[in-house]
Design a protein that fits this description.
- The structure holds two protein chains of two kinds.
- By secondary structure, chain A is mainly alpha-helical.
- Chain A has two domains: 2-76, no CATH class; 97-273 and 284-312, MetI-like fold (Orthogonal Bundle).
- Helices cover 77% and strands 0% of the residues of chain A.
- Chain A is flat and about 85 Å long.
- Chain A starts with a helix and ends with a helix.
- Classes of the chains: A mainly alpha, B mainly alpha.
- At the A-B interface, helix 2, helix 7, helix 8, helix 11 and helix 12 of A face helix 5, helix 8 and helix 10 of B.
- Chain A: Its main location: membrane.
């Protein structure tokens, strides 16, 4: 087991090398750089000499490959550089934004599970009944609502009119997380309820369920002891993927609610061409990607011991 | 026995009829939407770009059915006009992505080997990363504009279709009739176009139809962030972004385009679902 995990973690190195090189190249091809972004935002009117000086200071005048290797050398020695814009160390800035994103990921995943699993089961068990119908219509509607529209509606109703929750920011403790969580959970729950329902229906149509029914096993114990357990595999995979992409920050929701997480940080860094900050984000994404895949494979193995780990690695 | 058989056949027939009826209804509704988008400039009651500052931010009334925005522009006209940019760019995006992805997927699936495993690894990475941030990065690099937003989303969305096409090709490739075609000396190009493509087009068409709604939301999302359609162009996402600051005093400014997105996305999703039921009766929805 330990050897397997080690082997999988080794995959991180080529992934990080590839993806950082790619994003470096991508940002280099962009129109304008951090210096332009910095001075143009400050009101413009800065002479080209000043800009050139700043570029030399940041090393932006160097050829692309030199910039990349300098940055890589820094990372190898544990230095991720300083932000071109704020001048603060990238690593510390990035780490300081992580808790907000992790917090939001946890709450929205929890709420999603709390909504979609019971409703998905209910819809599957009462297939074609009134509850099934209502749940399906709701999840269909939830699937067709863009996140930014949901968040604006929630802000309008719960923050501006009822004044129950703050409009934005994460300063008011648990209250400030309610609306962003709801926005994310509505979209995800709509998707997962359908998924849970479909998965469970598929399981319910299998022969062993009929066998158990024929032997007189209670329906509820068939459901909880057998069906749910085997449906979990599909659901866990989906959830893991969602957790992965949530940990990457939800660009739109984070920026609407001014939720100070890594998604907003990444968007800001992209807009300002803050290369070192973008690189930190990219490394974080590579980490998540590898970890999520690893954890899903291990969970698979525990949920269904027939799936062997070694084959995957 | 005979009666039971008759009943099952009859209920199957009813089900097929029902699906076809749904398919016609949703097709007609989507067609109406597309017609509105196509003839938007003839349908608008007012000029969607004409400013009228005296009537800025008026609530919906008999003259302006959906109210006006902060420049006094008629929102109904802007929503109708926005249908054009929003829906057609989403359709363009889906067309690009599904064709590009299918070509890549068919190529990978048919040839296999090293190139295949490399391209699939790349598509894995694309699928794993949060698409929106990736799209924002590409759109940010290209600069604003709705066509750049389309390119940005195309960059991140092709892997889905590539994977789908590839898996379809892999399962068809081993069929006897393909071997027969190969043995009788058909060129790979002919096999791909004549024997493989017609058999994989169904699932791809279903996925493409189901994707229109999602793509529309993502395009509007980019515009909402200021990375898609640029003001003053009437586009639903950028109209909502424009109305954001007046949410408290003039909620109709975001409600009108928001509901327009919601309704059209839902229509395309409904159509996608029925297209799936029609093309693939084996995977019953219920």
């Amino acid at each position: 087991m330990r050897k397997y995990i080690g082997k999988r973690l080794l995959q991180l190195i080529p992934i990080i090398l590839g993806i950082t090189l790619l994003s470096f190249a991508l940002m280099q091809s962009a129109v304008g750089d951090a210096v332009d972004a910095l001075y143009d935002n400050a009101g413009g009117g800065v002479s080209e000499e000043v800009k050139a000086e700043k570029r030399a200071e940041l090393g932006l005048d160097q050829p692309f490959i030199v910039q990349y290797t300098t940055w890589l050398g820094g990372v190898a020695t544990g230095d991720m550089g300083t932000s071109y814009i704020s001048g603060k160390p990238v690593f510390e800035t990035f780490i300081s934004k992580l808790p907000a994103t992790i917090y939001l990921t946890l709450t929205s995943i929890l709420l999603t599970i709390m909504i979609s699993i019971p409703f998905g089961i209910l819809a599957a068990v009462k297939q074609n009944g009134i509850w099934d119908y209502i749940i399906r219509v709701m999840s269909f509607m939830g699937n067709s609502l863009p996140g930014f529209f949901v968040s604006l509606l929630l802000i309008y109703v719960f923050a501006l009119n009822l004044k129950l929750f703050p409009v934005m920011g994460n300063s008011e403790g648990w209250k400030s997380i309610v609306l962003p969580t709801l926005t994310l959970a509505i979209a995800m729950a709509a998707k997962y309820t359908r998924q849970v329902r479909a998965t469970i229906l598929e399981e319910l149509n299998k022969d062993y369920v009929m066998g158990a029914k024929a032997r007189g096993v209670k329906e509820s114990s068939i459901l909880y002891a057998s069906v749910l357990k085997s449906s979990m595999l599909a659901i866990v995979t989906l959830l893991a993927l969602s957790i992965g992409s949530l940990l990457g920050g939800t660009a739109i929701v984070e920026s609407i609610f001014m939720w100070d997480g890594v998604g907003k940080l990444a968007v800001d860094a992209i807009m300002m061409r803050d290369y070192p900050m973008i690189q930190a984000y990219v490394i974080w994404m590579a980490l998540i990607y590898v970890m999520v895949n690893l954890i899903t494979d291990i969970l698979y193995h525990y949920l269904d011991p027939r799936i062997r780990l070694e084959q995957e690695g | 026995m005979e009666t039971i058989k008759a009943i099952t056949i009859r209920s199957q027939k009813i089900r097929v009829d029902y699906t076809m009826k749904k398919f016609y209804i949703f097709s007609i509704l989507v067609a109406i939407l597309l017609l509105i988008a196509a003839f938007a400039s003839y349908l608008v009651p007012y000029d969607p770009y004409q400013q009228d500052l005296l009537n800025a931010l008026t609530a919906p009334n008999s003259e302006h059915l959906l109210g006006t925005d902060r420049y006094g522009r008629d929102l109904l006209s802007r929503v109708i006009m926005g249908a054009q940019s929003t829906i057609f760019s989403a359709l363009l995006l889906v067309a690009i992505v599904s064709i590009l992805g299918t070509v890549v997927g068919v190529f990978c699936g048919y040839t296999g080997g090293k190139i295949d495993s490399w391209i699939m690894r790349i598509s894995d990475v694309f699928l794993a990363f949060p698409g929106m941030v990736f799209a924002i990065a590409v759109a940010g690099i290209l600069g604003g504009g709705i066509m750049n937003a389309v390119v940005a989303l195309a960059c991140i969305s092709w892997p889905k279709f590539a994977r789908l096409a590839r898996s379809q090709v892999l399962s068809i490739k081993t069929m006897p009739y393909i071997s027969a075609a190969q043995l009788s000396g058909s060129k790979p190009i002919k096999i791909i176009f004549k024997h493989i493509t017609p058999n994989i087009i169904g699932p791809i068409l279903v996925t493409a139809t189901l994707d229109i709604g999602t793509m529309m939301m993502e395009l509007a999302g980019l515009s909402f962030l200021g990375l898609g359609a640029m003001p003053p162009i009437a586009e639903w996402g950028s109209m909502m972004s424009d109305g954001r600051s007046m949410l408290q005093t003039a909620p109709w400014v975001i409600l009108a385009p928001g509901c327009a997105i919601f309704i059209s996305v839902m229509l395309f999703n409904l159509l996608g679902d029925t297209v799936r039921d029609v093309l693939d009766p084996k995977t019953k929805k219920d």
